[in-house]
Structure formats: structure tokens, C-alpha cells
Amino acid sequence: MPRLSTRPILHLIAAARPNFMKVAPLWHALVADGTFDARLVHTGQHYDANMSDAFFRDLGLPEPHHHLGVGSGSHAEQTARVMLAYEPVATAERPAFTVVVGDVNSTVAVTLVCAKLGLRTVHLEAGLRSFDRTMPEEINRLVTDVLADLLWTPSPDGDENLRNEGILAERIERVGNIMLDSYELQRAHIEADGTFRRLGLAPKGYGVVTLHRPSNVDDPAALARLVAALARVAADLPLVFPVHPRTRKNLTEFGLLSRLETAPGVQLCEPVGYVQFMNLVSNAALCITDSGGIQEETTYLDIPCLTLRPNTERPITVTEGTNRLVTPENLVTEAGKALRGDWPHGRRPDRWDGQTAARCVASLKRWLADQPSDQPSDRPSDWPSDRP
Length: 388
Ligand code: UD1
Ligand code: UDP
Known about the structure:
This protein is of the alpha/beta class. It has helices at 17-33, 53-58, 75-93, 105-117, 136-147, 156-164, 179-192, 195-198, 214-217, 220-234, 245-253, 257-261, 274-282, 292-301, 316-319, 331-340, 356-370, and strands at residues 9-14, 37-42, 66-67, 97-101, 121-124, 150-153, 172-174, 207-210, 239-242, 266-269, 286-289, 305-307, 323-325. The strands form 2 sheets. The chain has a 7-stranded parallel beta sheet with strand order 3-2-1-4-5-6-7, sandwiched between helices. Strands 10-9-8-11-12-13 form a 6-stranded parallel beta sheet, with helices on both faces. Helix 1 crosses helix 7. Mean pLDDT is 95; it is low at 374-388. Helix 6 links the parallel strand 6 (150-153) and strand 7. Residues 17-18, 21, 179, 210, 212, 242, 271-272, 274, 277-278, 291-294, 297 line the site of uridine-5'-diphosphate (UDP).
């Protein structure tokens, strides 16, 4: 049967907000390179306009080739729905590579499908570990990294974690942090954007807050402690808080939303797109967050980051960067230190340089060139014999 495309098909999987800024630079680099027939697959894990469409627009991503429309659900429901929806797509197109990013439920679901179909999977942002299996993401990271064929890590701790888990060095490649490629691609738009001024904020005169980790926002007592701590910080420093849908739902359900809305100095808003958000972050005095990606972006931008978590899967943002783990109890004191300049400046980790997507494409092309033209019989892949 003649193939429609002589180029190897590559699926790039996008699912949730933090995925889009990891997928976009790789998408653009793959299109510019032209070796692969790259196809974007959106699982639909995040679906609100301000959790998905805004990012496609800001990051210059096209309509996905496939939209699986899985939506929300329990962990089992969501993971299973992604598997059910992706399996026929993967079976029909038999991609030469499927690239999954990050640590969301869709990441592990797609990896499971590919592993069972004998399709090669590449994990972008591999090797991160919080060593806290109460985090759903930690389970997703562990399973994804065991199954994926090629593991692209952002930092040396990632390589070390994988080696400690017995993963062969030949499956590991340190490509750097692709989030920052998105920042560099959008830098001009971010700098020209006037979001912080439109919100009436002064440069370096406010803090940015985001919260969405289940350990912080799903428990009424934990969320109440955080609301009280934020109100105390806001007495000294205006805070802008784009509220994640999980968090808004819980603030409402636990009767905490009006307490936060009426706290002097607190400005709540809906989640904002990437360019607007990075405009807010890059002009802020500090960030208060439990986000993974924001720990990295603040290190890159040399902005104090106060992470409301007992651990982080991104320790390099603490050892080399501007991130510190804090609690609701010491948040006011730590914010005060950051405002007084009593905070480490840190440095940009190696390969957090805006060039990660180029390294990823080079890595894929090396892999492609290294593949034997005959597939082993236990890998039912239709690796194209007409590869470039
Ligand atoms: C997910 C990821 C998390 C990531 C976060 C980024 C998993 C296990 N979790 O968490 O790792 O840090 O995305 O933001 O994959 N909702 C909406 N609209 C949307 C999306 C979600 O209203 O577009 C609401 C729904 O009520 C949903 C809830 O938010 O039930 C949680 O969404 P879900 O994707 O399950 O988890 P997140 O908390 O967003
Ligand atoms: N972000 C955004 N708008 C917001 C909040 C976050 O664009 O209102 C961006 C942020 O800059 C980072 C990414 O979303 O690039 C992080 O996503 P999130 O915190 O949802 O997930 P995590 O990184 O914790 O998995």
C-alpha cells in the first residue's frame, strides 16, 4: 500500500494548560525542520477558552489534527477516556514517534497506549521527582518514565533520578527546559503587553498568586489557612490572583470566595492567557504559587518565588534559582524578606536557554537515523522503509 506521506508521522500530545507552552516550541521547530509529518493531538483534558484556546492563540499553535474531547472526571475516568480515544488514532496512523510532555493524566494515558501498541514514545520533561506519591503527578511521572523509550530531561537531577531507578543511560538525554523557549518566542509580545498596567498595578509593586494543587485547594481547612495567609500578605503588597477552575469551584463550595474577594489588596480574576500572565509575572515583585511551571519561569526571570508546598520535583529552582518552599504559617515573613531584597538571585540552570526545541529535533533525527530498517518482531511498528 503506498503511504500518503513519505515522512514519518509524529504525534505531539497536548492536554492541559502547562502542556501548551512545552508543545508549542517543539511544534514550531518540527514544522521548520520538515523531516517529520508532525500532527498535533489535543486530548481535551483542559477545555475552557481561558485554559486552552487562549494558549493556542498566544503560542501560534494551529487547530489540532485530532481533538479527543475527553474533558474532566476522576483520575480513572479521565485516564481511561484518553486511552480509549487515543488508541484508535494511534492504531490508524501508527506514528513513528509520539511525544508526550509533563506529568498530567493524559501524559501517562497516551504513553500506556503507545507502549501496548509497540509505538515509540518520547517523554519531554522526564525524570522530575517530588518523591511524594500522594501527588497524582508523581504517579504519572513514574509510570511514564518506565514506559517511554526516550527520556528528555530538563536538568541534571532528572538524569540522576532516572539512573537511580535503573533506567539505561542510552534512553536519557538532557535537552533543557522547553518552557523557556516559549518565553523567548513570545518575549516581544510579553514585554509589549500592558496587562499589569490595565489592572492598575505598578512595576515591581505587586505579587502574583496561583494555586491549584489538590493538597492545597481540595481540603477546606488547608484552603482556609491559605486564604488567611494571602489576606495577611495583601495588607502590605497588592496581590493579583488568576483563579484556576478547580480552585474557584472549591473556594465557592467551602464558602471562602467572598472572604478572598473582600480582602483589601487582593484582586481576583479568571485565568489569563500565556502572554498576559507572563506580563504579570515578569513585572511582579514576587510570585506565590504551587505551580510547577511558575517555579521555573521565576527562576529564569530572577523573580522571588514562594512555593506553598512541602516538596518540589524541581529542586534546581531552589539550589540554583529563586524558589523557596514556604508554608501558610511563614508566608508573611518570607514575603517580607523577598520585598526587602533578602532573597537569592540565583542563576539560570544549564540548557535553560530557549534552545531546547532545537535540541529535541536534533535528538529525534539522530534516533531516526539510528533505527534499523527492519523492526524486531515484538515491536509491531510500521516504521517507514522509505525514511529520509
Ligand atoms: C491538571 C493536572 C495537573 C496540572 C494542572 C495544570 C492531572 C492529574 N492534573 O490539574 O498536574 O498541574 O492540570 O493546570 O492531570 N476544569 C474546568 N475547566 C477546564 C479544566 C478543568 O472547569 O478547562 C475544572 C473541572 O471542574 C475539573 C477540575 O477543574 O474537574 C480539575 O481539572 P483536571 O484537569 O482534572 O485537573 P487540574 O486540577 O486542572
Ligand atoms: N499560566 C498562565 N495563566 C494563568 C496561570 C498560569 O498562562 O492564569 C501559565 C504559567 O505561566 C505556566 C503554566 O501556565 O507557564 C503553568 O501551568 P499550571 O500552573 O496550570 O500547571 P503546572 O505547571 O503546575 O503543572
